[in-house]
Structures
1.
Amino acid sequence: MFKFSPQKSHIFKAVKTPLFIKKASMGKRLFFYLFLLSFISWVLMTVEPSFRVIPTTKVIGLGLIFFCGYALSRYLNLFFQTKLKKPKLPLTLQEANSRIEDIDFADFFNYDAARILSKVIRSKEKDSNTLLYYLLKETEFTHFVFTRLLIDKGKLIKEIRSIRGQTRRAEISDCLKATITMSLSIASKRGHDRIRAEDLFVALTDTNDYFEQVFIRGDIKKREIKFLTSWWVRIEKYRENRKKFWKYENLVKFGTLGRQWASGNTFVLNRFAIDWTEALSKRGFRKIIGHENSVKSLERIISGDEANNVMLVGEPGTGRRAVVNELTRKSFLGLSLPGVNYKRVYKLKLKSLIARVDGKEKTEMMLDKIFGEVAAAGNIILVIENIHEFISGHDRAGIVDISGIIEPYLEHPDFKVVAITNYRDYRRIVERNQGINSEFKKVELSEISQDEAIKLCEMITPGLEDKYNIFISYQSLRATVELSEQFLTSEFFPEKSMQLLEEAIISANQKDKKVLKKEDVAEVVSEKAEVPVGEAADEEKKALLNLEEEVHKRIINQETAVTEIAKSLRRSRADIDTRTGLIGSFLFLGPTGVGKTETAKAIAEVYFGSKKRMIRIDMSEYQNISDLSRLIGSEDREGILTEQVVEDPFSLILLDELEKAHKDILNVFLQILDEGHVTDGGGRKVDFRNCMIIATSNAGYKIIMDSVEKEIPLEKVKKKIMDYLFREGLFRPEFVNRFDGTVIFEPLSKENLMDIAQLQLNNLKKNLEEKHIDFEITEEVKREIVEKSYEPVFGAREMQRVIQNEVGDALASAMLSDKLEAGDKVRINPNDFSVEKIN
Amino acid sequence: MIRVIKQNLLIKWAFWHFREAPADLLSIWGNFLRFSVEFFSIIPLIKTLITPWQRLAEPYKSGLVNLPFNFQVFLLNSFSRFLGFLVRSIVIIIGTVITIIVFIAGLICFVVWFVLPILIFAGIIFGFALLI
């Protein structure tokens, strides 16, 4: 049963605390200034006797009263803030959440939430609208939330005031009860110690109808409110924590004095390395978001007695440097393990050392000295970035192999190294250097999640706003993370989202914009990834709606195929698909020369913007499993398919003659079609989510030909072909099912070929027009071309040859022999394909 | 129904003033003491009191022929140790003195806290007495 009795709750009683206690902080200021005034007066009267208009003792008396008044105000304020505002809870919030039948909800609110609810209870209508009204009117965080969402809070207050009920009710409404119950669960999940006003606000997103309308109107998602309130709570906690200078973690920020005097000095190291501890302590430490486990592993290994060297393996941009920064922070503040605390972190500038020291021998001597110093000092953690470059066994310009020099030191207990590399080079170089690799323990760094990336962007937002004098809307912040996840697939979180945010700000700044909106971010992503992003522009909308028409300008017949593809593209662009895989995937089946490849080309041109956006892979070249490495790469080579997709993530992939590929190679496409990504031979995840795959095959074409002859409907033919493909083991059912659609291309009829002849002759006509020659295409010529080239098995393929040999050659000869001149009008004689002038 | 025991304002105040606030004060006092010891690195400096200054020490050579050289090294290393001892001792002494000051200041605050309400009211009364 729902129990809510504010009259018995300590926190609601705190709301009714006498004013002289609640407002003691105001008295504190007043008494302080009065005391200061008395003190100054006393000083003046002591220095200059002419100022003594009243006896000095009276001034001292006044000063004493004001000082005591000040002390009393502080004392009462302290009592109010630390005791009355924070009464003891009967259960923790987590326990309360699991025993809601046994608790009184009124006991679990914080002061602000209780203050707002007290107002709601005193109102006529005790419902969720009233709660929303007071939250909007009286809290600072709602101002923060709606400003970030670019919504006018004042307008909302006016609206909600007008819809609030005016019927006096004694009981609180069911909706308000639901809101309170839900707020407990929200607060518990968020790890709060009490239910905050922010939790009530988040609960309203699910229970209040008016709020729902606001979301729809403003195109806001409920989770945005959750994120924004969490952001606010984090800011509040940070501010509160900073005020408490007496907390140990705040005191230790002053560092230590004399700690380095217990250790050795490092004269040579100082010349060729950056004292990262000093650099960060000057700049200010920033707490890491995500990667907690990696940092813990790092600390554990470094604090160990043996093999305390770490190989930090992660892709650039995943926060490898942030992990080292966190290690530095914890070490500096003494908040890590004993073996890590108060160590100094140095970043070795190997390339700079090699550049500054002449000759390999001298470089090696210098390195030996540096490593010796590190081991002797006993308080150094040495960071070496891109270690793979220096242990590959090859010396080249600017690179020296240091394996031989560093190896003996790695066993030393006081020699602690954090080496950084990426996955590909770790497998390619580090793992193969057994001597070095055995002295390191690997710590892997995966990409942080989208939610963590948003938190990170939130954290850097105030700094960026300050730097660029721009306001960053929350929609734009989310867009940086969501769009970088979707379109900047070859880069990694958090760097890609942080970089995108800054680029979008700079771009908006150049246009003198004062507010960064999601459209600005989409524009930058479109430029970077060469992908249409965001709301479709008018021209693009038109192209999408008329896709079928546009494609049919290039190919004849094949209505079903074109319609299916067009629908899939429209769904994808309108963002109504909750797809995880590709934009679309289709298997085209049909005899040769019926327009399968032409259709793919037309789609590439119409939707992807150019024929160059088509990655064409001839699958007949992948008949052996050993060919797989050519397709998706290996440790030593780049993959033909994967590399092109990384470079052009927005592409159409045409897999020609699919049935000829090795079965295991087809399995790779099983994953791509299913999940939209594949891991290439170098261990890199390649994203295919902005690609469309069209696979063509002429397997079973005889069935199509026979069926067309017998006039069997296409649907039945499709089933027959599938049976044939599975029976012959050409494709597995689970493979074919992964495609969004299997499209049967019909053989071309003579009428179709007439249209194709027209299309191809049109190309000739266009070329001649540039030379100011008017070429007339007659029905007779087309008919003759079709007659000469018609062969159902080869489709329209033969026609191109006939047009080229008969018509093209005749026109070329006529032009070369000066029989044709600019301004002439010509046609082709259908009987002998000779050129005739018409005047 | 699970509830916290009812308390009136006076009991709440007494509980806070004599139990909760002193506990907080003790914890803050502890933070300052711990910080003072850590800031001056007293423990690691005691542990390395007579190690050579910045670990600058030359290795000895074996054999009687190297006796003069080893004597020089001995003198050099002894000087390095002495220098280390001197600097560390100064920091340890300063650190210890400041830690003692922090301890005494904390103790005073702790004791004053218990009589603070009396002091405030006494101050007000005395102030009025001076006025009259």
Note: Chain B has a mean pLDDT of 91.
2.
Amino acid sequence: MMKETISLIARDLKRWYRTPAQIILVFTTPLMWLLLFGQAFNIGRLAQVGDNMTDLRLVFGGATDYFSFMAIGQTAFIMLFASFFSGVSILWDRKFGFLSKLQVAPIPRAVIPLSRIASSLVKSMLQATVVIVLAASFVLVPGLSGLRFSPSFDLADALGMALFLILLGISLSALFVALGLVVRNEETLFGLINLLNFPLMFTSSALIPIALMPDWLRAIALYNPITFVVDGMRQLVFDTSVGAEYSVAVDLLGIGVFSVLMVSLGALLARRALLRG
Amino acid sequence: MYSEDAVVIVDRLEKVYSGDVRAVDSISFEVGRGAIFGFLGPNGAGKTTTISILTTQTMPTGGRAEVLGYDVVKEPSKVRKGIGLVPQELTVDDELTGRENMELQGSLYGVPYSDAKGRIDELLDLVKLADSADRYVKTYSGGMKKRLELAEGLIHRPEVLFLDEPTLGLDVQTRTSMWEHINKLKRETNMTIFLTTHYLEEADALCDRIGIIDHGRIIALDTPEGLKKAVGGDVIEIEVVECEDDILEMIRNMTDVVLVDGACTDNRARIKVPDSGVALPKILTSLIDRDVQVASVMVRKPSLDQAFLEFTGRDLRDEESTSGNNKKEPGPRKGRFHRRR
């Protein structure tokens, strides 16, 4: 089972890195977000020019500026988008008959979604790393704010961040790969993705501080799985629980429960979709 | 009730889709080890659905099917190990090289890497792709992709190979070379091959036995020779300039005439005779005696074309032209001798 899975992961990755446009997008998409959205939307200044100097860390989940806050949120964003694409790619594989070739092959059915989730994770984790490195390197550019890590940030914190992102990546790609298997029409799939994209992204604290949200939105955001992930990661990066919604352990539990739910749902849907008609 | 060496056994197999579409309607047949069995029929006759059931992609709604002694419903994974499928559509990956496609296929079928390497070279050589093995498949022509698809289907040395429309959309040369590959496989490996086609020439050139399938039912099952024999003798098609009411009757009453099919309003008739060499002069003489002007005469020796017509009541090509595949017709175009009104 391992061998087939690895071969299929390799196939997905070859298709990815051999397309120059894809590689360019890996760098340009996060760059645009960090540069345009992250720099322009520097709402920290609003508080600074006002009279009442609040501790910005309370608003920005422990970060002292908006850019550092959103750069972490951006990594979650990347996981979400990579998951969309993994769902879309499996629908294309159905269209081109590659999926039926896999269905005829003597491989356990689970290899089909698992390999796609894994290849999606490899891509998205690479992209998330690019986001972090780009955001941190902005510190060196005069005139830009950059992602400022706490001086005590160490390997264990980095691994903790990776764990949060991997759990998010697994849950979202499990969901979208399953949807890509179930939905057989691309318009419907794109519609579904759009339908899920906005609420997932904008009811979380990935790009918008929860403190700035109206009460009803805050009530939703507190249970958004992406909130757990960015809340936990920010505490690891900025090494403070100031401005955090939960403890890191609760954040981990939150995304852990979400992963179990999504993987179970994904398995259920994928199983149905891969059954013979 | 089944012969010992049957590797494919299909017994009253049925696939009914919702809305009572009977794609496969209670078909039964067997394929013996080492045989090339062909399913011949127009598009939508149920050929691909049958392959899809036998290769464990689709569940039947009735009857049963065994491949290599395993029930396709109950033991799909055992069936999958022993079979190879070359699907109708191209499924090779454009972004990989030919060799990488083969390697992927090998690992999906559990071929150990040490064996795979040699086999891949051998198979790429067989389908004459050795020189292009390391090129991306997106640079291949349609025929090359199809050949790669064939090579992929052979990587694990399957006991039964399923070929769904192996030459659909290929030009005449590529088609001929595909036939050579298939015949070579049969000679050298004694592999059992199950193929579907709507090309009569193809079924004739390759198959030991042919099942004619139409509207989900098998309407004839025999060797190509047997099918031709069943059709009987030659067919003479005569077109006259102006028809007179009783000439059809006159021909029908002649000795040496088996069957006359046609209508006076059509000005043409299809006449089946045991031997056209004897019958044709008689028919022509009697027409000339009656001062009936003959516009055209055509004689057809027994062919699968006729067999198909005989069993289905219509020309295979009629079906093709409505589905837009008539451009890809192989071989010299033969005249129509039957039109459905």
Note: Chain A touches chain B at residues 3-4, 7-8, 10-11, 14-15, 18-19, 96-98, 100-107, 276-277 (CB under 8 Å).
